[in-house]
Amino acid sequence: MAISGTGLAAFHAVAQAGGFTKAARARNVSQPTLSAQVRALEEAYGVRLFDRVGRSVKLTPLGQSLQVITARLFAAEDEAEALLAGVRTLSRGHLRIAADSAAHVMPALGRIREKHPGLTFSLTIGNSSDVLTELLNHSADVGVTAKQTSDPRIRSVRLMSDRLVGFLRDDHPFARRDTTPIEAFETQDVVLRERGSITREVFEARLAEAGVRPGHLLEVQTREAVREAVMTGFGIGVIFSSEFREGEGLKSVEITGADLSVAEYAVCLEERRRIPLVRSFMDAVQAD
What we know:
Elements: H1 5-17, H2 20-27, H3 31-45, E1 50-53, E2 56-59, H4 61-84, E3 93-99, H5 106-115, E4 119-125, H6 128-136, E5 142-145, E6 154-169, E7 179-181, E8 190-193, H7 198-210, E9 217-220, H8 223-232, E10 236-240, E11 250-256, E12 261-269, H9 276-286
């Protein structure tokens, strides 16, 4: 049985938009038409791709698996259309970027935008593991991550080195100094990103190497939340040096006695590295 391209396109549109109304608007069709196309696909194979509750929809486990495939399928279709439409001149197009830090990617995007003002961008910020996952799922075209990978599907180019630093409120006892040894973190409360973050992975490894056991550990999901938690008095935060911003009663301190350097990498899928938009990004980040 041949799968209906119309049905797959309708399914993908709804999955991407998170609902039939938004998807119908994006595809410029009526909602009943889109619903009928998805229903026909489900009935043809005797499956359920969405759980429908009122006006909201949620992907079933099978639907989630199918979305991974359709993301690759329609990403390839977009690439073909882009090439045929003349995007190799970079006069127009849309680049999706996943990064573990806005500070590490914005300079490159600024250069690309200045050179090719017709391009548009979307930027997703997550932890280093998320960046690689989005790339492999075709949810992003390119990425910047501190997580090194030997996956042959991914092209990786080393960009720069950064360093982890501590930061704290200016009324913290450590604030009277500019440096502090890693041993001083013994029994100190620490605020860190969630597991999957290179910041956390590297810092916890260095604590273990030094035989240091901190006090309470507060785990948060974003860098902004790390900053807010430190400002509230939950402990010492750890962040990339390039990301720290003075102000709001906060001060950074260099941590000595441990190698806290972290490399950053630009990544793309090996099979897509010659796509003009992708190539332009990889060239731009290496110009930093």
